[in-house]
Amino acid sequence: KGCICCHFDHVLQDYYGKILSQTSDLKSNACVPSAKPIPTYIRKALAEVHPDVTARYYGCGLVVPECLEGCRLLDLGCGSGRDCYMLSQLVGENGHITGVDMTENQLEVARKFIDYHMQKFGFKKPNVNFVQGYIEALREAGLEEKSYDVVISNCVLNLSPDKASVLQEAYHVLKDGGELYFSDIYSNARISESLRANKVLWGECLSGALWWEDFLRLAAEVGFSVPRLVTASIVSVGNEELQRLLGDYKFVSATYRLFKLPKNWEKKRCLVMYDGNITGSEEKLEFDAQYTFKVNEVMEVDGDVASILKNSRFSEEFTFHSQASTACCAKPKVMPVNPFELVEQLGSSDVLSSTGGCCGPQESCCM
Ligand SMILES: C[S@@+](CC[C@H](N)C(=O)[O-])C[C@H]1O[C@@H](n2cnc3c(N)ncnc32)[C@H](O)[C@@H]1O
Q: Mean per-residue pLDDT for 267-291?
């Protein structure tokens, strides 16, 4: 690792390992709860997580992709492990989740409660483990290539000084057809070098945020499918001094899903029908902001989505029809790829102000 990384290591490990000991210690409202209501099965899983783990949750979204039973998951920057313990219930005893984080103090909290959770979930052997390492160097941390079905992350990419490496490593450790599903903070323009050098703004998940257009470019360079925008909420900084420093920059918390798909697959529009067999999505599958698949309804999908559905773990959950007639099928909504536009489109009622502090009582968040 180069010296810029070492510099950020120390700053961030102090920040997350020593300076912050609970979510209310955060100085800004960079993290906001998810804009979507939390489904009951996820609420139940969250309620099972030990309060000492939840108290150190610093995420900025809800990272629960569907169709997880039996899957192998990896959480980049798992912190005290809240998302790992929530998802360990959803992958079940035949699945597994590994959390990786560079900060030992965070991992100590996570590891302390492995037995507690396994007993609570009734699992004979642990389906969770925690590894100390850098998300820019997953293979150096001992994580194997092509070994995960899904990689998740919650409010961490913005903290990395080398975001291209994080995306590349995630791509390498994913199996073919695997998915990167993550929530993070994005800016409306590329952040200036002087703000990027500000340690508090960086540690608070703001000045390290990617300009959303840079994110789309990086994802394409790494080889991922075009990112599917799931949801977005505006971030109100909630701290006058930090806001003054940030000037006109605006921030959103957004959740994207990206897939590792075959490169030479001919992308063709097609008709699909969701079978309704995914736990928690028995009536409809809300795949992203554009596509909601209702059970037994024929829907037309574009070539990108057709490729995702046919080449991922979702392939067994759909019936694929020939393109003979599109006359009597449902059409997707037109949705923006720009998360700032999505926030506007969702309307003010869905835009969550973070006033009152991040990590409020109902769904805690980052900083
Ligand atoms: C904002 S917190 C989010 C933690 C966790 N995802 C959650 O939702 O509670 C960021 C976490 O990422 C870790 N982190 C930041 N940069 C990292 C890096 N380059 N490699 C590994 N972990 C990193 C920090 O140690 C911290 O635990």
A: 95
